[in-house]
Amino acid sequence: MNTYEMLGSRYVSHQRKKSMLWGCSLSLLVVAIVAFSCVTIIRSSGGEGGVVQPKPTKPRTSVVSRAVVSTCKDTLYRELCESSLRLSSTDAPPKTSGEVFDLSVKLAISQAESARSLAFSLSLVRQKQGTTHHYSITAMDDCIELLDDSLDHLNNVLDPKKNPSPNDIQTWLSAALTNQDTCLESLQNYKFSTEKDMMDGHAKNLSQLISNSLALYKTTKRIKDAKIPNLGGGGGGGGRRLLTGDDKFPAWLSKGERKLLETSIKDIEANAVVAQDGSGTHTTIAEAIASVSLVGGGGGRTVIHLKAGTYNENINIPTKQKNVMLVGDGKGVTVIVGSKNAEQGSTTFRSATVAAMGEGFIARDITFVNNAGPAKHQAVALRVGADKSVIYRCSIVGYQDTLYTHSNRQFYRDTDIYGTVDFIFGNSAVVFQNCNIFVRKGMSSQKSFVTAQGRKDPNQNTGISIHNCKIVAASDAKGQQSTYLGRPWQRYSRTVIMQSYLDDCIHPAGWFPWSGSFALSTLYYGEYMNSGPGSSTSGRVSWSGYHPSLATAEATKFTVTNFIAGNLWLPSTGVAFDSGLHG
């Protein structure tokens, strides 16, 4: 990330060229979409950014008014909450906070479907017209993929067959909200201003609806009955009893999947084998993933063995392709390389060498590389938005924005991560254990930042927890004391470093502001029982949101068990994990 970025944005502002005249087909499309949209929404004259809001109507009954008003009072967008829910209350008005929550999610689903239709139509017309502005087409494709993922999460929230836990619901709503923020980021340099404004309006409206659903969930009877702590507060979720002992992998991994993570590759029966010499079932990773795309759809595990070699590919595992496991022959032996980057017209989201959005993604014994170099700015080696994902014994190599922990629950174990600026970033709920984090040499006089956590809403159960890891200078950056543990990408940025080794590359201040005083009182940064020459907190920043010495009770909130509910899903994957703090 660039030092001179605007507040709250991770992208350098570029002068936008004047829009081209629209073709007749696009004009008719826009008229039709606007006409359809006006049936249900109007643009508010007030509020942030003129956000599209449902038109307020009078409440149908006093019951509706009491139920809606009482549950909307703690939302961030109270006026939108009340007006949208009243408008949506028809023959069966909600009478309880739980019913109000369900209705709010249904409203968000409807808005997501509308936004998805708009994005698809605009993208289709631009492609038919042969638009040469690659970034604009890519940005709209980002929004389509992210909206598909949001719809998947929102529908899961209301699906009784899923029997979601409170942590599931908060995670899925948090991820759906993050998706809209990412869509808006991708659209920042979109060339066609009228279309951009339309998508901005839909995405912002959807973001606020999801934010309200997230806040409403905290007040519903179902979360109160569950008697769990608030995972969205400044200190993270906590309060549950830690597991005893040192289980090697978290609880949501099945016995069979644990075995897959520990078993020698020669003893694993793979669904597909990729080998460049023709000795496997496929010669490229993309072919293998396409060939087994339906295998994991019913809940089964799809295993793809990537034999030794360097694969120059960009891989995307979409939301609907669940339970994919990529198994390599070892770090530095099986290597996947890409070079997409922001400087050459890619969105950060689309720059990833490997991207995984499908739930249950696992990667083992692979090196992921983006070799664009430090001067190309945002260039992602690995992007993960897959819920309950595990990265085990891998290496992730890049410079700026190396690892995009985009959303949902993630766990990294025995993995090496290399980078320069904001090289662990995103808005997932993620725990790193026993990992080596290497700070590389960047451009001349450039500061390095290990993390840039993107929590934008105080009710999101997201953050970065680095536990029992090493943060050290790479061989080419020895002797430099210009590395910071993190800076706040968004207002409620949350990162903790616990029981880790920090070498002398860490600046005494420890943490760095994003821009002026932005987020310094609302962020949550903490350190707990770290060691090494860079671990002293005596010279650290004095921000009100920084906690130089967390109490043990507070630190336990960021363990595998408490922060990502890992005791419920990691055991089934077979990955080793420490459920609690050491000692």
From TrEMBL:
<protein>
    <recommendedName>
        <fullName>Pectinesterase</fullName>
        <ecNumber>3.1.1.11</ecNumber>
    </recommendedName>
</protein>
<keyword id="KW-0063">Aspartyl esterase</keyword>
<dbReference type="GO" id="GO:0042545">
    <property type="term" value="P:cell wall modification"/>
</dbReference>
<dbReference type="Pfam" id="PF04043">
    <property type="entry name" value="PMEI"/>
</dbReference>
<comment type="similarity">
    <text>In the C-terminal section; belongs to the pectinesterase family.</text>
</comment>
<keyword id="KW-0378">Hydrolase</keyword>
<dbReference type="InterPro" id="IPR006501">
    <property type="entry name" value="Pectinesterase_inhib_dom"/>
</dbReference>
<dbReference type="InterPro" id="IPR035513">
    <property type="entry name" value="Invertase/methylesterase_inhib"/>
</dbReference>
<dbReference type="InterPro" id="IPR011050">
    <property type="entry name" value="Pectin_lyase_fold/virulence"/>
</dbReference>
<dbReference type="InterPro" id="IPR012334">
    <property type="entry name" value="Pectin_lyas_fold"/>
</dbReference>
<keyword id="KW-0812">Transmembrane</keyword>
<feature type="domain" description="Pectinesterase inhibitor">
    <location>
        <begin position="63"/>
        <end position="216"/>
    </location>
</feature>
<comment type="pathway">
    <text>Glycan metabolism; pectin degradation; 2-dehydro-3-deoxy-D-gluconate from pectin: step 1/5.</text>
</comment>
<comment type="similarity">
    <text>In the N-terminal section; belongs to the PMEI family.</text>
</comment>
<feature type="transmembrane region" description="Helical">
    <location>
        <begin position="21"/>
        <end position="42"/>
    </location>
</feature>
<dbReference type="InterPro" id="IPR000070">
    <property type="entry name" value="Pectinesterase_cat"/>
</dbReference>
<dbReference type="GO" id="GO:0030599">
    <property type="term" value="F:pectinesterase activity"/>
</dbReference>
<dbReference type="GO" id="GO:0046910">
    <property type="term" value="F:pectinesterase inhibitor activity"/>
</dbReference>
<feature type="active site">
    <location>
        <position position="422"/>
    </location>
</feature>
<dbReference type="InterPro" id="IPR033131">
    <property type="entry name" value="Pectinesterase_Asp_AS"/>
</dbReference>
<keyword id="KW-1133">Transmembrane helix</keyword>
<dbReference type="GO" id="GO:0045490">
    <property type="term" value="P:pectin catabolic process"/>
</dbReference>
<keyword id="KW-0472">Membrane</keyword>
<dbReference type="Pfam" id="PF01095">
    <property type="entry name" value="Pectinesterase"/>
</dbReference>
